[in-house]
Amino acid sequence: MLNQIYAFKQRMSQEFLAGKRVPVTSLLVPSHQVVSEKTVDKDGYRSIIIALGQAKKMTTKKSLLGFLKSKELNFTPKRIKEIKPGQDETARGLLQIEKIVTPNSLITVSAKSKGKGFAGVVKRWGFRGGPRTHGQSDRQRTPGSIGRGTTPGRILPGKKMPGRMGGANIATRNLQVIAYDPATGILKVKGAVPGPTNAFVTIKVTKLA
């Protein structure tokens, strides 16, 4: 069975499970329609091409419209993605999400984290900063010394310094599936998921319940 689906992050809330309050993230899982398949003989590898959800035609790129026309599809999806199936595994039509993600399963959710912009070392790496006294009135949030002098005479690679923070691909592992509602497409996950609201996330099932 396929072990990967896609969703859009909605919001965070909380629920009471077995008398304990736990954080819950709601993910909107669009329809997964299998539209094509790549083979080893023709493409060099096996994969299943999936159309996600439905979007307005006016906001769709012409390259995607050409692909949809070649596959004789009568709807415009939000995204087109590929999923690598297992050995001797095939899929047709609409994927049944409730059979892929079951309650109490463990999943890995990958998404692009929120961008924080250019950040200093205190915010980016958690540095303590310099002393507030002894004549250092303007050194509260500086990194301090960043290396030695003549030897090696350079800044070593990997040094923690100011720079762009966030906006990176993050994978959160071992999140527990609480429930999935096929009618609304809402998947509830225990814990936090990277990315802002409406972020596009990849879900991989690592352990079935």
TrEMBL record:
<comment type="similarity">
    <text>Belongs to the universal ribosomal protein uL3 family.</text>
</comment>
<keyword id="KW-0694">RNA-binding</keyword>
<dbReference type="GO" id="GO:0022625">
    <property type="term" value="C:cytosolic large ribosomal subunit"/>
</dbReference>
<keyword id="KW-0699">rRNA-binding</keyword>
<dbReference type="GO" id="GO:0006412">
    <property type="term" value="P:translation"/>
</dbReference>
<dbReference type="InterPro" id="IPR019927">
    <property type="entry name" value="Ribosomal_uL3_bac/org-type"/>
</dbReference>
<dbReference type="Pfam" id="PF00297">
    <property type="entry name" value="Ribosomal_L3"/>
</dbReference>
<dbReference type="InterPro" id="IPR009000">
    <property type="entry name" value="Transl_B-barrel_sf"/>
</dbReference>
<keyword id="KW-0687">Ribonucleoprotein</keyword>
<protein>
    <recommendedName>
        <fullName>50S ribosomal protein L3</fullName>
    </recommendedName>
</protein>
<dbReference type="GO" id="GO:0019843">
    <property type="term" value="F:rRNA binding"/>
</dbReference>
<dbReference type="InterPro" id="IPR000597">
    <property type="entry name" value="Ribosomal_uL3"/>
</dbReference>
<dbReference type="GO" id="GO:0003735">
    <property type="term" value="F:structural constituent of ribosome"/>
</dbReference>
<feature type="region of interest" description="Disordered">
    <location>
        <begin position="127"/>
        <end position="154"/>
    </location>
</feature>
<keyword id="KW-0689">Ribosomal protein</keyword>
